[in-house]
Amino acid sequence: SAHEGQDDPQDLRQAYRWAVEADPISAFGGIVAFNRPVTEELAKEIREFRSPQDGETRMFYEIVIAPGYTEKGLETLKGKSKTLRILEAQPHNHQNGRGMKQIGGGFIVQDHDYLNPEDITFEVVSEVQPTKEQLEDLKFAWRCVKHVKSNAITIAKGKRLLGMGSGQPNRVKSVEIAIEKAADEIEGSVMASDAFFPFAWNDSVEKACQAGVKAIVHPGGSIRDSDAIECCNKYNVALLTTSVRHFKH
């Protein structure tokens, strides 16, 4: 879900629509994951929702996965496609554990990133203070960016993911992709970065400010942090640091 899931079925249907609208091209032929059980109403939405690209083509998925399904919800989903795989997986609440990556000759082991916004301090380092709404959006964007492959950037507004840039060899390219995905909805949005900005002027920070982003959060820690602060002050954009980076490979 590209929106924080609520128990209200209508909210979950809206979250699903927003998730698809964030990147309908990539969503087509992909996987849909929910953090709440799939009801009949939600299943109908999945089954009938048209691609935002042309408003006519039904969205096609390989897999739907959720913590559960109502009887009618499962029946409705089974009617969407003969090739659709429907999986059930319970959420896990483990607060420890490690991940492994295979490399030549062995493995690299690291702790899983279980940090949530309530676990850290968002420090305002710019002259401009974020609004209450912007701060909530920054926390949402920061929660999202930890699940995105580095170099990772997320742009959000109204606790809705508008665009993300992922897996790029440099951070500015991820910013440019996220800006492109957010398109004309970017004005007044916020941006989160999974690691600090090595450059600001004519680079990631300034490009975001010029595009319409109004608040930015990053870990901080670069020798050029002062450039990022000065850039945000010039454009009247709030800048916050967390002193914690995500960085997912």
From TrEMBL:
Keywords: Hydrolase, Multifunctional enzyme, Purine biosynthesis, Transferase
GO biological process: 'de novo' IMP biosynthetic process
Cellular component GO terms held in the UniProt record: cytosol
Record-level Gene Ontology MF annotations: IMP cyclohydrolase activity; phosphoribosylaminoimidazolecarboxamide formyltransferase activity
InterPro entries, per database record: AICAR_Tfase_dup_dom_sf, Cytidine_deaminase-like, PurH-like
Matches recorded under Pfam families: AICARFT_IMPCHas
Name of the molecule in the record: IMP cyclohydrolase
